[in-house]
Amino acid sequence: MPHFDLPLDELRTYRPDLPEPDDFDEFWAKTLTEARRHDIAARFVPVDVPLAGVDVFDVTFAGFGGHPVKGWLVLPAGTTEPIPAVVEYIGYGHGRGLPHMHLLWATAGYAHFVMDTRGQGSNADAQGDTADPVGSGPSAPGFMTRGVEDPHDYYYRRVFTDAVRAVEAARSHPLIDAGRVAAIGESQGGGITLAVGGLVPDLVAIVSDVPFLCDFPRGATLTDKLPYREIAFYLKARRGHEDRTFRTLSYFDGVHFAARGRAPALFSTALEDQTCPPSTVFAAFNAYSGRERAMEVYRFNGHEGGGFYQKGVQLRWLPQYLNG
User: Fold this and answer.
1) Contact 128, 117 (CB under 8 A)
2) Is 109 helix (H, G, I), strand (E, B) or coil?
3) I need a surface site. Which of 186, 190, 199, 255 has the fewest CB within 10 A?
4) Which residues are within 8 A (CB) of 128 and not within 5 positions of it... i.e. 6 or more apart?
5) Does 249 map to a domain?
6) Residues in a beta bridge with 186
7) Range of 174's domain?
8) CA–CA separation, 118 vs 133, rounded Å?
9) CA dihedral 235, 241, 247, 252 (to 10 degrees)
10) Is position 3 annotated as part of the catalytic site?
11) Looking at residue 268, which CATH number applies to its domain?
12) Is residue 229 part of a domain?
């Protein structure tokens, strides 16, 4: 696919006029206060895996509404003292998968906490184990419009709350240094990472690769690829609901969370990415309020972005903050 979005020099200055709800901060403060009324109750059950270099734990903790959320914790084998941690959020439709899929950060010497995404995980290679017990009104297939009639009912209110609680669960483990925790994610995981970066003020760094869930109005109208297209499918059937729908989505836009982020941040985008168009990524990057931020641009890639090359960039960039 050739370049289809704005030229790179325009992307670097792209700042959409996105209305922000007046009660955005109040909404999220109340949401997290309600979630914290439930004991985090994090449980870490050792898992016997035929891997010599790591110790693996099956994790369960209380997320939104006290609902049980699953995850993995992977530690370098034989860890006896608290070490820095990377908390990871995963891509759209995927679940936590299997432990041997998550070895990179433990082999680099860090604790690796992987959060399962509620209700997702039907992918054959990355199954999920976390239910979403909350229903919703009419929606298009997928997750983008579940509960979109009201921000209190919207699906990603639950997911973003789970994600903040995942940081809290990770910090509760005795072998994790609670003062040296970073958040990381790709695509949907990158969007969740931006939300966590805006809601958790003391992360040491965030890494958001080809992030989804940013600049919803542009994503819903620029690309015909899923998942943004789910919004268009919903509005095709729900004529006249545009204003209410985009008002709900404004409470969950990565651009608004980026404006509240303070930790050093590494972003990446790809100029042929039709799933998460580069302008939506730059909208968040250009809004990011942290003083230290960097963007990796892959000119001839699609939604795969930098792939394993970007992992190499992360391995060089993130330790300067985790090891500080």
Assistant:
1) yes
2) coil
3) 199
4) 70, 94, 95, 96, 116, 117, 118, 119, 120, 121, 122
5) yes
6) 209
7) 55-322
8) 9
9) -30
10) no
11) 3.40.50.1820
12) yes
pLDDT tens string 226-277: 999 999 999 999 999 999 999 999 999 999 999 999 999 999 999 999 999 9
Q: Which residues are annotated as a binding site?
A: 92
Active site residue 268: no
Return d(Cα 320, Cα 221) in angstroms, integer: 39
pLDDT, tens digit, for every residue of 293-310? Answer: 999 999 999 999 999 999
Angle (CA) 89-94-97 rounded to 5° is 85
SS3 of residue 201 by DSSP: coil
If 0-12 CB within 10 Å is exposed, 13-18 middle and 19+ buried, where does residue 88 land?
buried
Distance, CA of 93 to CA of 118 (rounded, Å): 10
With 0-12 / 13-18 / 19 or more C-beta atoms within 10 angstroms meaning exposed / middle / buried, residue 314 is buried
- Give 99's DSSP letter: G
Q: Is 102 helix (H, G, I), strand (E, B) or coil?
A: coil
Would 176 be classed as within a structural domain?
yes
Contact 279, 222 (CB under 8 A): yes
- Catalytic residue, chosen from 25, 129, 136, 303, is 303
- Please give the DSSP secondary-structure letter assigned to residue 173: S
Helix (H, G, I), strand (E, B) or coil at 46: strand
The pTM of the full predicted model, rounded to 2 decimals, is 0.98
Q: Tell me how far apart the alpha carbons of residues 268 and 261 are, in angstroms, rounded to a whole number.
A: 16
Domain total of the chain: 1
Instruction: Confirm whether 45 is domain-assigned.
Output: no
Cis peptide upstream of residue 264 (ω within 30 degrees of 0): no
Q: Is 250 a catalytic residue?
A: no
| Whether pLDDT at 1 is above 80 | no
Residue numbers belonging to the annotated binding site for substrate? 92
Catalytic-labelled residue, pool 208, 253, 273, 279 = 273
The 3-state DSSP composition of the chain as helix, strand, coil percent (nearest 5) reads 35, 20, 45
